[in-house]
Design a protein that fits this description.
It is a single chain. By secondary structure, the chain is mostly helical. The chain has a domain of 101 residues: Tetratricopeptide repeat domain (Serine Threonine Protein Phosphatase 5, Tetratricopeptide repeat, Alpha Horseshoe), CATH 1.25.40.10. The protein is built from 12 helices and no strands. The longest helix has 28 residues. The protein starts with a helix and ends in a 7-residue tail after the last helix.
Length: 267
């Protein structure tokens, strides 16, 4: 019985609260709405904050409070995990209030929004690219920021995801037997991200793709393409003399050396 009373009281309280909020939304008292924005924000009621600010921000655009209200709006949307809207609001804030004490944080958060929207490597990486660009812009504009190290780490993480995406694409070409396309994709990855943790794997796949291309080429192009594979072999073993791919690499060398009539002592 007592439990039922508590439930009824709670339902009544919720109904009253909803009724008050609905009345607030219909109200023309912008000052009251502004006051409630601060109260709701402190209470973590971010959806109500954004709904009220959508109504009143145009009224306060040219006032001293516009900066703080815009900052709260961006923060509230971020806390609602609406990163797309929050990103634009943070960027607009940084552009509109470049001298604000929150300008640095706003530009950083705009980049973080793209970082949070970055999907797994298999999917389109447009937001990952935007995150990389945004962290770069932030570090250029605020070179002495305490956020610099965080930006470097997040930017590197995004770059690794781009390499992984490139690796997935190259591997797809490789598995389909499109070795020339795979070689181009792998070369681009290695050129753009020379320090990637996938470097050894990328270099091995490139070597094997060059070898497979030579193996399948018409006779008139085979010598040149086997030579390309041989050059790549020397680059690979110079960098990774004790590779986990050592057996496969040596098989590639043996077949290439045989075609080019290279003495075994040159290995």
């Amino acid at each position: 019985m007592r439990k039922n009373i508590y439930i009824l009281l709670l339902l009544a309280l919720v109904a009253t609260s909803c009724g008050e909020y609905d009345a607030l939304l219909k109200s023309t008292d912008n000052e009251l709405k502004k006051q409630k924005v601060y109260e709701y924000y402190d209470a973590g009621k971010y959806l109500k904050v954004t709904e009220l600010l959508q109504q009143i921000l145009p009224r306060y655009r040219a006032t001293e409070e516009a900066e703080q209200l815009n900052w709260i709006n961006a923060q509230a949307n971020y806390k609602l995990l609406d990163y797309e809207i929050a990103q634009q609001m943070f960027k607009d804030f940084a552009d509109l209030y470049p001298l604000s004490t929150n300008a640095e944080e706003a530009l950083y958060m705009a980049a973080v929004c793209y970082y949070n929207m970055s999907p797994r490597a298999e999917l389109d990486q447009a937001n990952t690219n935007k995150a990389i660009e945004s962290f770069t812009i932030f570090m250029t504009r605020f070179p002495n920021s305490t956020r610099t190290q965080e930006c470097i780490e997040k930017k590197k993480e995004m770059q690794e995801k781009m390499v992984e995406k490139s690796y997935i694409n190259a591997r797809l070409y490789y598995d389909m037997g499109e070795f020339k396309a795979s070689t181009v994709s792998l070369s681009n990855s290695l050129k753009e991200y020379p320090d990637t943790k996938y470097r050894e794997e990328l270099m091995f796949l490139k070597l094997d793709a060059l070898y497979q291309t030579a193996l399948r080429s018409i006779p008139s192009k085979q010598r040149e393409r086997y030579q390309n594979a041989l050059d790549e072999y020397y680059s690979f073993i110079e960098e990774y003399p004790k590779s986990s791919h050592e057996k496969d690499v040596e098989k590639i060398y043996a077949a290439t050396a045989k075609f080019l009539k290279i003495e075994k002592t040159e290995n």
